[in-house]
Model the fold of this input.
Amino acid sequence: MSVSELTLLVLRLGFLLVLWLFIFGIVYALRSDLFGHRARKMQPDAGAPVGAPAAFPSPVTLPPAAAASAPTEQFAARPSPAFTDVDDKATSQNATRLVITSGPKAGTEFPLTGDSITIGRSGDSSLVIRDDYTSTHHARLMLWHDKWMIQDLDSTNGTFLDGNRLAVPTPVPLNTTVKIGATSFELRR
Amino acid sequence: MPASSNRSTTTDAPARPPRVRRLHLPQKLRNLELFLLLIACGINAASVVLVQLGALGRIDTTLVLLGAGLSVMVLGMHVVLRFVAREADPFILPIATLLNGLGIAMIYRIDLANQETGLSSASVRQTIWSALAIGCAIAVLLIIRNHRVLFRYTYIAGFVGVALLLLPLVPGLGREVSGARVWIGIGSFATFQPGEIAKIALAVFFAGYLVRNRDSLSMVGKKFLWMRFPRLRDLGPILVVWALSMSVIIFQRDLGTALLYFGLFLVMLYLATGRLSWVLLGMSLFLGGALVASQTLDYVNGRFQNWLDALNPDVYTADGGSYQLVQGLFGLAKGGLVGTGLGQGRPEITPVPQSDYIIASLGEELGLAGIFAILALYLLLVARGFRIGFAGNDDFGKLLGVGLSFVIALQCFIVIGGVTRVIPLTGLTTPFLAAGGSSLVANWIIVALLLRLSDTVRNQPRLVV
Done:
C-alpha cells in the first residue's frame, strides 16, 4: 500500500493542527488562571444607578429567573433578606458565603466557590471543626444540580439542619442554621 | 444479644438514621484530565502512524506495542489519581504524556532510518523505560500522601543528592560516555545517570534547608547601592553549592549538569529570600568559574569555540568540532516552517539524533510550528508547576513546587539553547523527549510530586474552628 504525496502533506499539516488544537484546548481550559475567575452574580449596589446592569453586558449569562429578579423593585419588596429568603434554596447563584453563627469562631465567614466543602475534624477537610462532638469526616456541603446540599457522612453525633437531624442529603435553604457539634453556620447571600 | 439491643434502643433515643444514600459527585478535574489524556494518546498514536507512512509507506503492527504501552500506563496512573489525588492538577499528566509519546515516535523514526528493530532498538527500550518511569511515579503517588513528609528528610535528601552526584566518580562503577563521566553501570549494560535523580533530592534539600535558614540569609546585611548584600559569614551555603558545581565541571566534565544544579539553587535562594543580590552574586560566581574553566579546561574551551565560531570550516571539520551542532542547525533549517513531515526528513545524519539532538530531529520533521508547539507544552507544564507553588500555603511546598518545575524549565533552556546555538552546547537530556531511562524516571517522579503538591494545595482547610 503506497500513500500519495498529497495525502502525506494533508496528514502532516493536520498533525500540526491537532497538536496546536491540543495546546489551545489546555489554554482554554485554564483561562480562569489567565483572566481570573468568572464573575459571580452581581449584586446591584443600592447606590448604583438603575441602568448600570443593562449598560454593561455581564460576562455571565444569568438564568432567566435570576435576570428577571435582578433590578431594583426587589429591594423595596424585600427590606431584609434574613427574614424573607428562608424558603429559598441556596443555589450557586444566590449563596455567596458561609458564615459561622455560633461556636468559638462565631462571626467568621468565607466565600463559596462552587467546590464542595467537606466538614470534619481531620486536617484535610475544607472546614475543620475541632471539638469533641465532631467526627473526622462529619458532613459535606456540595452543589447538586446547582443547589447546595448537605450530606451527613455517617457522623457519630449527627448534623442538624434547622434543628432536625439529617438522614438523607438535603438541600440547604438560605439563612438556615446547620449545626455540627458546638458550631453552627448558615449560607448567606 | 437482647441486652445489647435493649441498650441501643434506650440510649439512641432519636433512633440512628439508616445508612445514608451517598450522593455521587462527578470528579470534574479527573474527567477533564481523562479527556485530555485520550486526546494526547490519540496524537501519540497518530505520530507513530505518520512516521510509518512517511518512512515505510505502510502501517506496521509495531504501533500496537509503542502506542499502547505508554497509553495503558498513563491511563493506569489516571485511575490511581482518581483514588489517591482527586484534586490534583488535570493538565500535567496529559502534557507529560504527549511529550513522552512524541519522543518515542521520533526515536522510532530514527530506529527505522538506522534499520534497528526488536528489543535492542532504542524506541522499544524507551517504551519500556517509560513504563518503568510511570510505575515509579505511581509508586511515589501511593507512598507520599503529603508532601510535608519530605520536609522531615531534608538533610537525608541532601546527603543522597550529593552521593548520587559523586557516584560516577567511584572507580569501577562510573562510566565515561563521550567525555562526560556522569554514568554508572554494572557490567556492560544497565547504565544510569544518577545525576538525574540527584536533582530531585537536591530540590527537596534546598527547599527544606532554605525554609529552616532563610531568616539569616534574608534579613541581615549591609546595604550597598540599592541592594542589601549578605554578610560574609552567610555566604557559606552558596559557596558550598558553587564548589560542588565547579567540581562537577572539573571532575565529571559536564558543564550542563553543573549549570543545572547551580541555577536551581540560585532560583530557590532568590525565592526564599526575595533578594536580587543573591542572584547577582551567584551569577557572577558561576560566570567567573566558567570563564576560568574555559581558559584552563580543554573540553570547556572547545565547547565555547564550537559555539562562537561554529560555521568556520576548520572548527566544523575538527575532531570534536562543531560538526554535530551545525548538522543540527542544517536539519532545523531544512525543516522550515512546517517541517518535512514525520518520517520524511533525514534526522539520522546528525550524530546522536535520538538523545541530545532530538529537538533538532523534531525541528526538521515538524518544522518551526512543531518546535513551538513542543515549547508551548513545556511552557504550560512549567507554568502549572509555578502556579501550584504559588497557591501553596506552606513555604516548603511553595519552594519545592517552584524548584521542581524550574528544573524542567532550566533543563529545556540548557539543551534547546545549546542545540539552537543560543548558549554553548552541553550534554543534558531534553525532559520527556530524549532517549534515556534515568531522565524519564526523574521527570516522571517530578510529575508525580507536582500532582501530589497540587492535590494537597487544593485540599487545604479554608477555615479552622
Summary: Chain A touches chain B through 52 residues (CB under 8 Å). The two ends of chain A are 67 Å apart (CA to CA).
